[in-house]
Amino acid sequence: MTDPEQSSDSAVQAPRNLRIRPWSALKFRDYRMLWFSSIAAMATMNLRVLATGIWLYEETGSGVVLAGLGLIELGMRIPANLYGGALADEVDRKKLMAATQVASFVLIGSMAFLEGFDVLKVWHIYVVTAVLSSTSVLGGPARSALTARVVPRSHLMHAVATNTATMQIGTMVTPLIFFLTSLTTDLTLSFTVITAFAALSAVLPLMISIDGRAESATTGKSRIRNIIDGLMYVKSHPILPGLYLLDVGVTIVSFYRQLFPIFADQLYKGGRGTTSLLTWANSAGGLAGSLIVMFTRDYKAKGMLVLWATLFYGFLLIAFGATTVLWIGMIMVIFLGATDAVGMTSRQAIVQLTTPDNMRGRASAAHSLAAMSANGLGQAEVGFMSEQVGADQTMYIGGVISIVVVFLIWWLVKGVRQYRYIEVPSGAAIDGDYDGTPELPDWYIHEERRDIDLRDLK
Question: Where would I find the H helices in 20-92?
């Protein structure tokens, strides 16, 4: 496959008259390398989460123990996210990604060794989770920020959607990999396979050819100052705070993915197989949601797309809590995964599109901080509530609160509901529809008959 041209300053340019298809981002060689490395990193993380969650639940039978795992992840991820965002805007992003995956290789390999000798303990899982929660998020902002460097701006929405779709395909496959490797009496084989994926994810980022440093990389300031500058930038942004608050408010009361062992037990009286089926269904829905984003490029109201998806998500939580038949529950989980993926993909794309390159690491870190913090708190809250009132009542409560949060964000943060995205790449046709109209800002907020370009808000 011939790669589209790339300019000398590492900014990828789209060939003239290139028809943009859902898979067009894969035409760029550096994006493919980033894509492969993301697959390996995603498989490492997903398999680790599955293996450690199953191991803990089988060893203790306690939802509180799983909730404790979420709190550990939260405590470690908050400082690591902020620090990783600043690093991503200062150092070579490729090397940062590789270094963080080396830590996964070493520590997951250690768990495989301990499990092989039947000496793996709960505290081992907690310690490894604490360390990997830090190292994995250190590389996350770099990976997100690098996406906008390896494809032209006209392909960015598709690149982000491709990332999400690939992640969902991977999470459909990884439960099957886990199930096959967990058929033995212990999880030694599972941890060994995860270690192999971690090794691959440590090598692939170094095969990306562009300069891994941000354009106009931040220099001459302390890292604390850079972190503060990044937070102030996000705070002053007219859209991102509302999107982050929406994600946090909903996820804290509804995070269910890492607690599928509890739902499999309480709702469907199942074990490992049922957990794998629910995980697969969630990933299938996520894939469908990613494809929806790919095929809604002409839908300009991206902020409203997030709000509509999250609103449906709230109603689906209530429906999921009411099901006790596995196949019906899987259908509900598919739709939950789809609506969640639409919101997540759109949020990630908005961060990339409305943030300059030398701020993308910190803006992505703030997004990741909001999501990961909400996931950790949500895992703890849903795990605790499931123990107290049951999984079904927990989903009812989460669904109602999620619906209320959507209406509050719609009402209070007008930037989200008024956000519009227009994609008119300079010198390129979009599916043959470009009519020569002068290039417009890449996004605008229509407010009181004014078109506001984010670049004017620096």
Answer: 29-60, 63-88
Q: Per-residue DSSP letters for 113-152?
A: HHHHTT---HHHHHHHHHHHHHHHHHHHHHHHHHHHHHS-
How confident is the model over 105-147, as pLDDT tens digits? 999 999 999 988 888 888 899 889 888 888 877 787 888 888 8
Query: What domains does the chain contain, in order, with CATH numbers?
Result: 31-209+223-457 (1.20.1250.20)
- Which residue type sits at 353? L
Phi-psi region of 85 (alpha: psi -120 to 50; beta: other; left: phi over 0): alpha
Helix axes 63-88, 357-389, angle to 10 degrees: 170
* Spatial separation of the C-alpha atoms in residues 124 and 18, rounded to whole Å: 52
Other CB atoms within a 10 A radius of the CB of residue 380 amount to 23
Of the candidate ranges 10-24, 85-99, 295-309, the one whose mean pLDDT is the lowest: 10-24
Side-chain-side CA neighbours of residue 220 (13 Å): 2
Count Cα atoms within 13 angstroms, Cβ side, for 144: 35
Residue 421 sits at φ, ψ, to 5 deg, of -120, 125
Q: What is the pTM for the complete model shown?
A: 0.65
